[in-house]
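Blackboard transcription, Thursday session:
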Amino acid sequence: MAEKIAEVVVVGAGPGGYVAAIRAAQLGKRVLVVERDQIGGICLNVGCIPSKALIAAGSLKERIERAGKLGLKIAGKVEVDVATLVGWKGSIVKQLTGGVSSLFKRHGIETIAGDAKLAGPGRLEVKGKDGTTVVQYGDAILATGSRPIEIPGFKFDEKDVWSSTGALAPSRVPKRLLVIGGGYIGLELGIFYSKVGSAVTVVEMLPTILPGTESDCALVVSKSLAKRGIAVRTNAKALGYEKKGGALVVTVEKDGQKEVFEVDQILSTVGRRPNSENLGLETVGIKPDAKGFIAVDAQRRTSAAHVYAIGDVAGQPMLAHKASREGLVAAAAIAGDKSAAFDPVGIPAVIFTDPEVASVGLTEPQAVEKGYTPVIGRFPFAASGRAMTRDETEGFVKVVADKKTDVVLGVHMVGPDVSELIAEAGLALEMGATVEDLASTIHAHPTLPEVVMEAAEAVHGMAVHIFQPKRA
Ligand SMILES: Cc1cc2nc3c(=O)[nH]c(=O)nc-3n(C[C@H](O)[C@H](O)[C@H](O)COP(=O)(O)OP(=O)(O)OC[C@H]3O[C@@H](n4cnc5c(N)ncnc54)[C@H](O)[C@@H]3O)c2cc1C
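(Written on the board underneath:)
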């Protein structure tokens, strides 16, 4: 049995683990990373990055098809060469994961390929191809991430029934695609497939798509799905499927009635579950909650001494940038920074649908629940010169502020490039900015961020480029 000693051992090399490892090394620690699959985790290999590559290609195709309105005539159809598209996506993944591996090397971070399990305080066992390695560690950071939830009747075989992973490596564009689950992953991928030629149906068990998303923003996406011809069945439960001829016949129950859909491909995206099983947690006295999440404090310490948890395994929201920030905090805490703490006030959430949705901070109902008297400012992209020049005028920016103090409590947006615009709102929340701060920041013209500024002005009834009747 091989033995190793590490000041810090990190289990999992996703955006939580690899960021934590690099920061711990920057702070002078001797770091060992254990990864059972691929460096980069879900995010770089089969999550954020590959999905955004496909989505970017689908959006470019659609823009080219719409360019006639701008006087740009395209001869012929835009054809999709699936193998080239998937290859291009793969090349981006390779560059990024190769970059992480090279940073590991340059920081002197050692990696072991294998499945890690805690084996009592200060001890970790790694089962790899060549046997077991025992690691004696000073501090451990668990960054084991999550995996897709499988529902009865729809076992992932990545042939007939795709998980998101299968949908990111297609061999063809299915003619008819049924997406089970109207959350962000299902809709992002469903819209991509619609753009490249699939007839898409989305089945969602809850009464609305994008559960948990600011309701006005979700409504804009709902309308856009309808305009694209994507059929959405809400309050509908997918029960199972059978193969008939070359087709997949899916049975769905909606309002007590059975409905049947004949499709060529099923994509099941009903949520993700934390990877906290078989980790030896019991050997250090950690008990995950009923959903499998590991509880942590502000420094991402678990209930066990010298064991930290970050990323998807440490609770919602399951987002890459939340995992990375937690990684930085845990590494700093291990290196002795007593002020290091994770502040959840400004975690942006972006949905790369078309139009995109981005949110940070409290919605209006959440602000009321927390005892604030919220005031709202809203400005539409339809009144933005920049949005018009891009021929993308759908959506709005909404600022939620505290009436008493003028402090920005939340910003919610749906429309063009809001995935980029949300950064300014995140900074506003992080700094405890007021509406006046946002409104009096001089924004370059003509740009989309002017819409954020005008939404802030609208909180005070002073937006210049829309008419706001005087308030009593
Ligand atoms: C299709 C898709 C699109 C997404 N898009 C976005 C997006 O646009 N933006 C965003 O913020 N988030 C997105 N996410 C979510 C994002 O990928 C996750 O929140 C993020 O990857 C979590 O990071 P993590 O470090 O906690 O874990 P992961 O990235 O899941 O990495 C965990 C790693 O730990 C390894 N591991 C697990 N157990 C062990 C063990 N016992 N021993 C050794 N290694 C182990 C795994 O192999 C894995 O590599 C998306 C997810 C999917 C599936």
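Lecturer's comment: The longest helix spans residues 82-106.
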